[in-house]
Amino acid sequence: MAKTLLEIKGLRKTYGPVEILKGVDCTVAEGEVIAIIGSSGSGKTTMLRCINMLEEFQGGTIRLDGEEIGYHVDGAGRRRKSEKEIARQRALTGMAFQQFNLFPHMTAAENVMLGLVKVKKLGRSEARSIAETWLDRVGLASRADHYPGQLSGGQQQRVAIARAIAMSPRLMLFDEVTSALDPELVGEVLQVIKGLAADGMTMLLVTHEMRFAYEVSSRVIFMNQGIICEEGDPKEMFVRPNTERLAEFLKTSSFN
User: φ, ψ for residue 13 (rounded to 5)?
Assistant: First the structure.
């Protein structure tokens, strides 16, 4: 049985008086690919951002590889960890966003190298070698010395994925990575993610691409109004949803 890599218990997140996450429980085993689906505002992206502490959370615990993320929780209550500690923990996860967030004055290779040099303290030649390996892996070996402005949206997103994965994260988070792309560029990015899934990388994918979620994920989580409403095997959930809410959502989605 695969080891549990991520464990979320009772996760709560509020913005002022508004509760976005209302006690989320979730476990992810090593090698699992989990698609998180649900309508806008259901808490999907917020959950991802809490996992790597881009958002503070007000209740519950997140453990990655057995380590408490973001806070010390003990008899004295709950205290935020130091920024140095949080930065180290954040490096355990890689995240690719809707926007590519590449530095426009750096080439594709230099964008991938940046974290390897600044965070992992690797020499430039070793960082360049790793960058070239991952750019080749995402089909961009010939674009290593091109600047973001010389690349299509799909190519920029693939550079962003290569940059995240080059850091050797334990867990990869994808937040609607195709939503800013023209429809004809979506396929090339999804193909890269499929390849990573085949390699056994542990992934959480927030996506509105229902067909892709059906094909690539080992499990699907359906979120609704800040809670996990339903979860299970995509082959079962998409064909025979247990809840009326999921059935309604699938009717209005791109899955058919």
Answer: -140, 130
